Amino acid sequence: MKNKQSYEFEKPVQKRIRFSHGILVRIFALLALLSLTVILMICATAGLHTGLVGRQGTSDYVKARVEAVLSSATSPDKSYPERRTGEQELRIRILEGSASGRQMEITNYVNVLHDIEARQGMTIVVQLTHQSDGSLSASVYNYDRSGVLILFGICVLALLCIAGGRKGVQSLFGILFTVLCVVFILLPLVLKGAPAVGTALLVVVLATAVHFILLDGVGRKTVPAFLSTVAGALFSAGAASLVGAIASLNGFHMQEAEALLLQSTHGQIPIHGLLVAGILISAHGAVMDVAITIASAVDEFRRESPVHSDADRFRFGMRVGRDAMGTMVNTLVLAYVGSSLNTLLLLYSYGISFAQLINTDLIGVELLEGLAGSLGIILTVPLVAFLSAFWAGRLYPAPAALPENPAPVKQPQ
């Protein structure tokens, strides 16, 4: 008798997606922070009116295409041959805005500083002024650089994602979140008259929390780094406020103060606190970099050498921090110098005395920004090393177990 072979069809096994506690905490924290950010953005931009109003009417900046160069009388400048001077007669077509499609004939004045020499088929940006009598006038504002700059930005961000992998993509979202917070929270609230320092601190806290949670969730590295970053930014702001009050330096001594006074209606823009708010924002990136570098190094040292004590980890964090401290302080100071290089060169060419130079508003503001930001970095190093070594390990124990017969490891110096 033959045995009948039976065939049984296995039922498909449904895979259950299990989320660890850390992933759930990361998801809920991100959702809470993003919800809070959206609410703040809606409140900040509600009822906000922006725009520059001139004496003769309102102005718009729109793209236009050069249909034809009717005449051109330009020549190289005698002092700077690479620049041209003269004037052109252009026929342009407006490409956007309420006057889209309209043709206009305008005069383009070319000089050393305004070296915008138009060519047929070129896309430029023009300033359209709506006069009170209903007429419309136009003048050449600048080249249309938006395509080149956007393409360059896309290339840099793409390289960030390729070189950084998953971390690079997460950093990209963190950068975009920071930009959105500045544009839709910081700027609108300050224009409405909100305290500049408090608003900047709010943006720093939100941007730091979201960036660290995106990178590594909530754990031994990000919690000390977050607390140290916020504390370092506060150190910089506090030092700037104290020294600024003693030296009589505030937002009214910055280069853009006069323009802000003209743009401000009934004095609602808190110009006085803009200097400290700017230091908070500018020092935030460098402080965050130092904090996460030390926290990551201490956490890796804890994993690789669990036999060491908390004091050893603190000394290790300080060793890493001293190296990062010197380079980041130098980077921060050079960034401030580079942003004011033209003005510094002009002051140097005047041959003014040291007493006059050190008491110039620009030099005083730049020194205050550089020194206050450097102080924030210096004070952040021991704080993040302490929190990573003594506190984070107890709050978030390492998953790796201690080996039964650990090999002797050289003590850090």
Task: Note down, in words, how this protein is organized.
By secondary structure, this protein is of the alpha+beta class. It contains ten helices and five strands. The protein has helices at 21-45, 146-191, 196-216, 222-247, 257-263, 274-304, 310-339, 341-350, 354-358, 361-395, and strands at 57-76, 84-94, 103-110, 123-131, 136-143. It has a five-stranded antiparallel sheet with strand order 3-2-1-4-5, with no helix packed on it. Helix 1 (21-45) runs antiparallel to helix 3 (196-216), helix 3 runs antiparallel to helix 4 (222-247) and helix 6 (274-304) packs parallel to helix 10. The termini are far apart.
Principal-axes shape call: globular
Biggest sheet overview: 5 strands, antiparallel
Individual helix count: 10
Gyration radius from CA atoms, angstroms: 29 Å
Q: Which ranges are low-confidence, i.e. pLDDT below 50, for 5 or more consecutive residues?
A: 6-11, 13-17, 400-404
Number of beta-strand segments: 5
* Helix content estimate: 55-70%
Instruction: Report strand order across the widest sheet.
Output: 3-2-1-4-5
Give the N-terminus to C-terminus distance in angstroms. Answer: 83 Å
Strand content: 5-15%
Mean pLDDT, all residues: 83
Structural class: alpha+beta
Secondary-structure element order, as H and E?
HEEEEEHHHHHHHHH
Layout of strands and helices, then pairs:
Layout: H1 21-45, E1 57-76, E2 84-94, E3 103-110, E4 123-131, E5 136-143, H2 146-191, H3 196-216, H4 222-247, H5 257-263, H6 274-304, H7 310-339, H8 341-350, H9 354-358, H10 361-395
Antiparallel strand pairs: 1-2, 1-4, 2-3, 4-5
Helix pairs in contact: 1-2, 1-3, 2-3, 3-4, 3-6, 4-6, 4-10, 6-7, 6-10, 7-10
